[in-house]
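Changelog note: in this version the structure field was regenerated for every chain. One regenerated record is shown below for reference.
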Amino acid sequence: MIKFTDFSYFFLLFVIVPAYYWTPKTKKWILLLILSILFNISWSGWYVMVWTLLATICYWAGKYLGDHSRSKRQRKLILTTSVVTCILPLLFFKYLVPINNSVSPVTLNWLAPIGISYYTFLIIGYLTDVHRKYIKPEHHWGYLALYLGFFPTILAGPLERARQLIPQLRNPVSYDPDHIKAGVYFIVWGLFKKIVLAARLGELTNPVFDNPGNYTGISVTLAILLFSVQLYCDFAGYCDIATGTARLLGIRLSKNFANRYYFTPSRTESWNFWNITVTSWFRDYVFFNISKGVTNPGRLEFNRLLTFIITGLWHGPSWSFVIWGSLQWAYINFEMRTRQFWQKFYSGLGFKIGSSSHNVWRIIVRLLTGTLIMGWFRAAELESGLKLYGSMFGFSSGTMSMVTPGFFLTMTLFLIMDYFNYQMGEKEDIASYLMKRTVRRRRVSFLILTQLVLIFGRTAVANFYYIQF
């Protein structure tokens, strides 16, 4: 398999990028489609046939839905039939097989065709948008197949909408050195997050999660908090490398994480800033669909809860993911309903609403409450989650501590990442930020990041965490 963190991947990019720009514009899609198929095969082998079959079903269903001479009932029937047909392989590989097997659901997810969750979601979104007349159907199988299997995004996103990506594939841009620079900046930034921060945080937290009963309650609590940071660095790092790869080819991908995710003062905001493309997908194609025409507040709230539970179950067939999704809904719902109370509460403590000190306290409270929910996400199974939280609350805790010399080094490296995130704010990304700096400052910043990757990066790292979903 070709991994984003392997030297072989970057060597291939070194060959692919010049070949892409030398290829005539009308043939570039062929090169990208071949590369995407080969990339898919390197991970999934003959499972690439599942992707091929679903892409073909999506193509013909889209053409049918785009024919407005058909009756509304006929179009609705073909939409339902095609969506159900395309979901069946996902249900089989990701849910039916794990449920009927004694192996861990998360472990078994690796046996499924790689990226099946993502291209299934793309198919559902594409067909729904065609049915809603938001977009016209794609009449070229090759471009649609490339959209569904584009190699930088097929493993774990970002989950691009058809109206955003297909036009770029159809109209490739000419060579521009700024695209190359931006792509390199994104890739190095992503490597820093993944092989430096996520890898080192994993070394700190994994022993605690493997044997929580050996550690103190404080260490278990700290491990859960740091896992949230680890997951952010891991997934955001993947998205940066994917974005950088696409940018080398002159293709822009959607932003999937807020830069200052950990500085959002409310759980509602942090939820909307995490895995943005997937969160918005569940909103547009799950919640809006089941809530169409619903006006009863109680029913709408139930639909929100159901959407959160489905979001949890998307990660795997486990009660821990159901609990995680339900707790996310409960936290956000509680936050929205008690907003005025908390404003009065903080005012009573002497904080000016909206001031820096007020936001700092809100951030601290949000981190110490909402982030602890992530223990259920990491546990992946109900029994593991109960053991984990039992140790956190001191029911079965040990005496070991996770605070080691490596802990302080990792925290220092994390602060370096946060410094760049703070400087960028939310209106910029690492590429636009560096490109606007003076040449000297840009070179120094890039040199620092590169050296940190080379010095502190782990040569052997685990696959990106979200690939299993």
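Spot check on this record: The radius of gyration is 23 Å. The longest helix spans residues 177-210.
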